[in-house]
Structure formats: structure tokens, C-alpha cells
UniProtKB/TrEMBL annotation:
One of its GO terms (biological process) is chitin catabolic process. CDD domains: ChiC_BD, GH18_PF-ChiA-like. PANTHER family: BIFUNCTIONAL CHITINASE/LYSOZYME-RELATED (PTHR42976), GH18 DOMAIN-CONTAINING PROTEIN-RELATED (PTHR42976:SF1). GO terms for molecular function: carbohydrate binding; chitin binding; endochitinase activity. Its EC number is 3.2.1.14. Residues 1-33 form the signal peptide. Keywords: Carbohydrate metabolism, Chitin degradation, Chitin-binding, Glycosidase, Hydrolase, Polysaccharide degradation, Signal. It holds the Pfam family CBM_5_12. Gene3D superfamilies: Carbohydrate-binding module superfamily 5/12 (2.10.10.20), Glycosidases (3.20.20.80). It comes from the Bacteria. The keyword Ribosomal protein does not apply. This is chitinase. It comes from Streptomyces smaragdinus.
Amino acid sequence: MRRLRPLRAILAAATAVAAAGLTALAAAPAAEAATPLPNKVFAPYFEAWVGDSPAALSAQSGAKHLTMAFLQTATAGSCTPYWNGDTSMPIAQSVFGADIDTMQARGGDVIPSFGGYTADTTGTEIADSCTNVTAIADAYEKVVTTYDVTRLDMDIEIDSLDNTAGIDRRNKAIKILQDRAAAAGRPLEISYTLPTTTSGLASNGVALLRNAVSNGAKVDVVNLMTFDYYDNQQHDMARDTQTAAQGLVNTLANLYPTKTQAQLWGMVGIIEMIGVDDFGPAETFSLANARTVYDWAVSKGINTLSFWALQRDNGSCPGGAASDSCSGIAQNTWDFSKIFAPFTGGTTQPTNDFSLTASPASGSVAVGSSTTTSLRTAVTSGTAQSVALSASGLPAGVTASFSPSSVTAGGSSTLTLSASSTAVNGTYQIAITGTGPSASHTATYALTITGGTSNQCTAPAWDRTKVYVGGNQVSHKGHAWKAKWWTLGEEPGTTGEWGVWQDLGAC
């Protein structure tokens, strides 16, 4: 998967290693505590390097399962993986552990993904980097036991697809890991994420899967990256998804001749790049495409539906190019997630749905005063339903009221935001949520407070080398800032309205 940012032996010996590793897996959280993924799961990619909380975005988007990208070594030649290859983000409970626990408690989970475009082009994909098969298996095992997960993903593309030694080491290590898990009674799945043409895998992708078969490594899911075709053609992205998947099933039928057609389709995963992909507007995956792919995926009984990436599921840059933080098309926040989320467990899309917008989407209020915005709903499918309205993210000293507090889809409400004398100057992002019987949607309103308490720069100066967690405050360039979640090295004022730092105003 593309990352557009600074920063991704012998059988007897394998058997001996597997026996040596049984204690570690058995000593992990009890096998019965690890819950297998549903047989149909929506798991969009989560960009782990931007400082967002996976649990928070999971709750906001409705995506209960996330694919966490990416795990890679810090340098070529190393056998130790880190999140994003960042040595300050080791495989440890202290890094994402609390978020993953929260998601699992809510009935969701994560799929840690090894590799990715950057790792695969810099020699830091672990099986390319590390020549010790046992050490690779140990690294996989550490991720499984640290986070108590039941699926690992291998995102292999570009240079890694042609590194035959790395491919062989990876599949041997997967076999060792699977033997350990089986001996410990622990559920474990392996998925391979691979680039595709519109007619299926290229020859190097087929060779990778053939090597897995020869090494006895069980591949449960093959995720096709149905984007970035780079063939200078205009694309119907939904149709191309279907032809690519059919080509994959034809390949899998040759590799696994005893499987039925239903079982083969049950090995298929699809990853879209929502909105405009890296190639440009000729490869644009629209909301209409998403609905078509959803219906097709349900009808075929595929295993995994995903997209790149959760942080892009908003319309803050319509008409733009591919970006880490927006889709490049006009949409509401979480529109793609709402379409795909019912796929988990094989459910169907809600027959009744609606949209929610705030007009205007921003405003200013002086302390002691109030401002209003109109909340408009519209029926997008099925029949009108009752929509309850609520607001979150209100800064101290600000209250919200709705008139009315519940509407029938198609109706409008007025949101009044009142600032008391204790309100603090600054601009705040307020989330307005409409909740109906079968769907929910969120709109964002940017509220600027003036004439209130001026933040004094009493907070310590921001330090690039220090780790900050949600609630920590710093001063930087004449403003006070508050961290929304864990962050390291991200400069206040550079992360945008959806970023980690909330501007509390001048001081």
C-alpha cells in the first residue's frame, strides 16, 4: 500500500523451531480470549503514523475492525519491527495497546499489517531485511501475543514482490508461526495484500502464493489492491474490481484445486482507494462505486472488504489529488465507512438512510453571546426515519441546544451555541451527530470564540523529542495547544483541523 508521507530451513529445522515457540504462544493471553474475526469483515486501513487514536476513529466511523499500517524494521538488515519503522513505537502494550483493548471490548479488533510501499522499496519489510527465519517468526509471534490478535497481514508490493529470497523466508516463518499457534490452540489467520491488474494478479504475485503453497504456509485471504493501475486508461473502478477478483479466483482455483468456488471466493479480499487514487482522476472510486462493490461483495461471499484509508474518508479537499487526509471528492465525513460497515458478519446495508449537513459549517461567537447554524437532513435511501441530534467536542464554557432535538429525515433543526464568560478564546471543532434506527452520520462545525479568557503561555514550550498524550497542553509560536491523543514530533500548527493539536488560541 502506498504511503505518501515521511515516513514499510528446512522443514525439520522449522519443526524444531515451532516446538521451541509453543511456550511463548501458550503463555500469552488464554487462547479462548482471542476471538477470530467474522467470516465477513470490513477492516479499512488505519494510518498509524499520524498520531490518531484507532479506537476513537473506529467509534466515530462505525468501522469496528481496522487494518493497522504498517510494521517494518527501522533499518535494512534488522530483525526488529516497529510501527512505521519508528524506534519510538515498539511492539508493546504502551503503543496502541489501550486502543486495541478498547476496540476488542466493543466487539472489534485490528489486523496488524507488515510491509507497505515504503518498507517494500527500502529493504525494511521484515522478511527482506532479516535473513533469520526463526527471528521473523518470533517477530510475528510477538505482535500476535502482545495485542492478542487473530490475523496478520503481509502487504507485499514493488521490490518485495521480486525478492524471491525474502518471499521464501516470509512463507517459512509464517509456517513456523502457524505451527506454534496450532499447538497452542490459538486461532490465527494470514492474509496477503498484493497489487493487481484489472484481470488479476501479475506473475510475481502468483509466484508468491505458489511459494506459500510449497512451504505449507496457509493463506486465508488474498487482498487485492484494486487501484493504482497506472495504465493511462479511464477506469470504471467498480467494474475493474469485479474483473480483478474473478482473475484472482481463477488463479486460486489452480493453486487450491480441492476448494469449491464458494471457498475460493471466501479467500478474496478487496481494498479500494476511496476517491482519487495516486494515479489521478482517471482512477476515481466514487460513492456510487462503493455501493456497487458492496452489493457485489455480498453476493459473491468474499471475506474482506477494505479501503485506503480511514483518515481519508472525508470531503475536505474536493477536486484535489490523492492525499493522506481526504478523498479528493465531495462527500460527507465517513460516507464510505457507512456504506461498507454493514459488510462485517455478512449483514446488509441499511435500507433507510439519510445525510446530515451544517450550514454554515463555521462561525464566530463572543463570550456572553450565542450563534446558530442550520442542521439539514435528507433521505438518501429508503424512507424517512427519526433522527436524534447531539453535539460533542464542546469546549469549556460553551453549551449547545437544538430546536428541535429530533427531526424526521428531510427536516431541519437549529443548533444554538452559547459561550459563557468562562469560555476560552480559540477555534474548536464540534461534532454534530444525527442518530437514526439504522444509521448515524456526523457533521463538523468550526466554532471560533472571541473576547473570552486569553490563554496565558503558562504551559511548557512544545518539545519535538517529548511524547504527549491526550489532554497535555503546550505553548508554541504565541499560541496554546492541547493534544487530542498520543503524539511525538508533530509540530503544533502544522497538523490541520483534523490533526492531533487543538489550537486554544493566542497567548
